[in-house]
Amino acid sequence: MPFTKTEFRGLLIFEPVVHGDSRGYFYESYNESTFKQEGLNYTWVQDNQSSSSYGVIRGLHFQTPPHAQTKLIRVLSGKILDVVVDIRKGSPTYGKVFSVELSAENKKQLLVPKGFAHGFAVLSETAEVLYKCDVLYHKPSELGILYADPALQINWGVPVNQAIVSDKDKILPCLAEFDSPFEYGAY
User: In this predicted model, what pLDDT tens digit does every residue of 72-95 receive, in sequence order?
Assistant: First the structure.
């Protein structure tokens, strides 16, 4: 199967089979049957796409229950460092960070289940990111964790003096200041 498990329960790397020749390539970026064979039964209800320049850091974002989202993230052009933090109370990996490079070249995707804070940093000149969500966006449920939380020690792959971060993301709480509404095993 094209899925690689991580040490974080439910967090998977999806590597589709790419068929390439002299004309270019073709691959199925999503196939419901492939996911169902892995026991992944999601109904995707919203696609989001962003375009960002080098040094942009977006995150660490999530929506609270009952509007929590599972996301399937991929890069259409460029390269990002995709980062998640487990915020599920009782999880053996609570507060731990996972990161993976996603790019248009490697075509890897990251399946981020509910209970993770998610963000990314743009490592190329520009990057276009597309992600599927299983729950619609709900602004009142939107929260986040500070991308620069010293306890998390995230290396975003971008020099601090070149990081471009929204004002909203600069004032998010640190993980220690946050009472997570997510319980391990609830999703």
Answer: 999 999 999 999 999 999 999 999
